């Protein structure tokens, strides 16, 4: 498929965008401005400049505004947070389109610090507005983007554990990743931890503040990197655009480890995932265990061609937002549907039964039901079971059961 494979990192501070296989990347402050006299929109530094000159009205924290369904009034017009986010994303996509002279988007992978259902829905509506087919748009967590970025590097860089320090405005986050190789499956685990020692990047403007910041980072590094074997430490975020203020921390990080600074790490990881979607076979045959992925397998017992077997409805490592299934089943006298929940880590399988309350009594094998499964988070499944009857002999009734299942 011809077209751009784009990774887009969205947050309320600044956003970054890049294309797979291209060195060029853009870092844009996450603000939008509309000129007062006509509907001309500006982003980033242009938005700041127009606002300082009194030529426009600026709106920031676009993700927060969209996720809480807020509004902003500009020039007497009330815009929803979703509308403003939609305009901002369109303008972000214009950067690579104009740079490379390509308007078609083959894959767009958006990465977020926190993956929430309501915001995910909003982003998919944005894709509809931009006329990008939904099967070309995916939303992942920073943790998952980190995995894709690392696995796209030379294998010796992730032989052992890998660490990532993200230093942004008022945010210090630590990520850790490891690959577990097994006889039957290989697993990649990654997690993120916001550090209480976060500090404002403004303190780097003074020598004394820079020394304090270096001391804080050293304290975190000693706590997080000790007693573990790391192949590589990555650094990302606005705070690490330069490292001359963090001399002691860099000495600590480089001790028997490779250290790399990558400004657009999450966007590049997202673009790597987009490229993988276009391949006939994935280049990453692992079960991903991270934010945004299921940590339990969901199955049920069925009879198929005279044999009992386990039907997998959702697997370990599936994206919870994209994992949806619709199954047609014929009941053999059952008054309930039984699911088996098998967590990846504990391996303690348990069952959950959903009573078919309100369903009519019929002879065995004369009731067909439609079961729809979807997830509202990586730990919560929503099951909807409807009566579909059995042809003209047993017409369907309006019986339906909805139940939330904790994984």
Can you summarize this structure?
It is built from eight helices and 24 strands. It has 407 residues and is of the alpha+beta class. The strands form six sheets. The chain has a six-stranded mixed β-sheet with strand order 15-14-11-12-13-16, covered by helices on one side. A five-stranded mixed β-sheet has the order 3-2-1-9-10. A four-stranded antiparallel β-sheet has the order 18-17-20-21, with no helix packed on it.
Q: What spatial order of strands do you see in the largest sheet? A: 15-14-11-12-13-16
Shape descriptor reads globular
Looking at CATH, the homologous superfamily of the largest domain is: ATPase, nucleotide binding domain
Give me the Rg, rounded. 25 Å
Secondary-structure class: alpha+beta
Q: Examine the secondary-structure arrangement and name the CATH architecture of the largest domain.
A: 2-Layer Sandwich
Mean pLDDT across every amino acid position: 93
How many helices? Answer: 8
Low-confidence stretches: none
Distance between the termini: 38 Å
Instruction: Give the quaternary arrangement of the chains.
Output: single chain
**Could you estimate the helical fraction of the residues in percent?**
10-25%
In total, the number of strands is 24
The biggest sheet, with number of strands, parallel, antiparallel or mixed sense and barrel status, is: 6 strands, mixed
Tell me the name of the CATH class of the largest domain: Alpha Beta
């Amino acid at each position: 498929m011809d077209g751009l494979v784009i990774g887009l990192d969205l947050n309320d501070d600044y956003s970054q965008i890049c294309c797979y296989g291209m060195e060029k990347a853009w870092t844009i402050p996450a603000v939008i401005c509309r000129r007062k006299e006509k509907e001309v929109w500006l982003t980033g530094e242009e938005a700041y400049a127009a606002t300082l000159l009194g030529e426009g009205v600026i709106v920031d924290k676009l993700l927060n505004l969209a996720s809480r369904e807020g509004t902003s009034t500009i020039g007497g017009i009330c815009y929803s947070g979703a509308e403003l986010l939609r305009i901002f994303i369109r303008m972000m996509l214009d950067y690579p389109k104009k740079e490379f002279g390509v308007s078609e988007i083959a894959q767009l992978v958006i990465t977020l610090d926190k993956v929430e259902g309501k915001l995910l829905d909003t982003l998919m509506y944005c894709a509809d507005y931009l006329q990008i087919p939904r099967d070309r748009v995916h939303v992942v967590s920073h943790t998952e983007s980190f995995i894709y970025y690392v696995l796209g590097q030379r294998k010796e860089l992730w032989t052992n554990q890998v660490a990532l320090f993200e230093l942004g405005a008022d945010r210090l986050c630590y990520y850790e990743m490891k690959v577990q190789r097994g006889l039957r499956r290989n697993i990649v685990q990654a997690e993120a931890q916001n550090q209480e020692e976060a500090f404002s990047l403004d303190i780097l403007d003074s020598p004394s503040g820079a020394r304090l910041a270096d001391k804080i980072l050293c304290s975190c590094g000693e706590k997080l990197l000790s007693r573990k074997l790391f192949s590589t430490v990555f650094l990302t975020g606005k705070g690490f655009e330069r490292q001359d203020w963090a001399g002691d921390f860099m000495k600590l990080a480089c001790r028997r480890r490779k250290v790399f600074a990558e400004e657009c790490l999450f966007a590049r990881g997202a673009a790597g995932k987009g490229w993988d979607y276009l391949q006939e076979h994935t280049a990453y045959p692992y079960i991903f265990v991270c934010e945004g992925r299921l940590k339990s397998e969901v199955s049920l017992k069925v009879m198929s061609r005279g044999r009992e077997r386990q039907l997998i409805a959702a697997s370990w490592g599936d994206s919870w937002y994209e994992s949806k299934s619709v199954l047609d089943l014929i009941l053999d006298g059952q008054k309930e549907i039984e699911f088996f929940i098998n967590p990846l880590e504990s391996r303690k399988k348990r069952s959950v039964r959903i009573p078919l309350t309100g369903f009519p009594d019929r002879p065995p094998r004369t009731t067909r039901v439609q079961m729809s499964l979807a997830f509202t988070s990586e730990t919560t499944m929503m099951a909807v079971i409807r009566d579909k009857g059995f042809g003209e002999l047993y017409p369907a009734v309006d019986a339906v059961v909805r139940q939330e299942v904790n994984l």
